[in-house]
């Protein structure tokens, strides 16, 4: 039995947008159900605008949901969290430049957090700060320095040390490598693996493309326009994708050149506006397999195998997935000119 440390149950988020005649409701999250299992890295992957950051903010309590619940260890948590609850879920942001206060030294930043969360007695704050820096691959010298004195990768390490200071059980990492140089991305991904291995921490790792998380996460949840459309173990998702959108995302991987694991998805067509969602399946306007039924039935996320769920009424009828080239440029370091098949969308 999987043991969920964090459960998202029917979470919806709507924003009121525009005014007067142009006002409308933007449905950023249209009912999210998702579990993060204890000790796992679960990837949450989706195009820009699919609602990933909105969900992340709700999980850490900085944004309230329109409906639904978030549970930590089966206990509901809301936006008004006491210190003990806020300690348990910490966030790492995409941009390590703007997420650190430039006027406070690293030692000052860590000390403030360690005091606030009463992690260690006051006389152990320095030792604990050094321990945190060592965990993220930095040393004691960093204590007296300011964020501006570090490179992008080092700043992301500092941001991770800050998130670890309260000794959270859960880390929410919102595209933590998307703003980094390609050469640095792999080292930060390795750090997340190490945190999982050494600290047993549970991590929701958000990314906008699949190649970043292919070798990092144990499971992947694919998001499309405010919904989870497929969730499975990583190997199963790549071997046996059941949603046409997931297939298109996997097919788009070889188009990325060797160094560009950070490129965005390339799926034909633009996603519809979350202010004016299509009827039925929200992927149907871009799906080459869509039938009239797809334009009227809004499919729920349904089990399609052990630990595998997909939201597509045709999931059981899809041809087995055949990927044109299993050796992708993104993983073997050679740019490719091969044009991927997109049979799933044809
Ligand atoms: N404060 C806000 N007011 C109105 N719309 C918002 C707000 N924040 C996000 N959105 C919209 O919600 C949708 C999801 O955004 P976001 O969660 O940032 O997506 P992602 O992180 O996947 O790129 C987008 O359409 C975005 O424009
Ligand atoms: Mg985002």
Automatic annotation (TrEMBL):
Keywords: ATP-binding, Nucleotide-binding, Transport
ABC transporter domain mapped to chain residues: 6-250
InterPro entries per record: AAA+_ATPase, ABC_transp_ATP-bind, ABC_transporter-like_ATP-bd, ABC_transporter-like_CS, Oligopep_ABC_C, P-loop_NTPase
Transmembrane segment boundaries: none
Residues making up the signal peptide according to the UniProt record: none
Membership in a protein family: Belongs to the ABC transporter superfamily.
NCBIfam families assigned: oligo_HPY
Protein name per Swiss-Prot or TrEMBL: Dipeptide ABC transporter ATP-binding protein
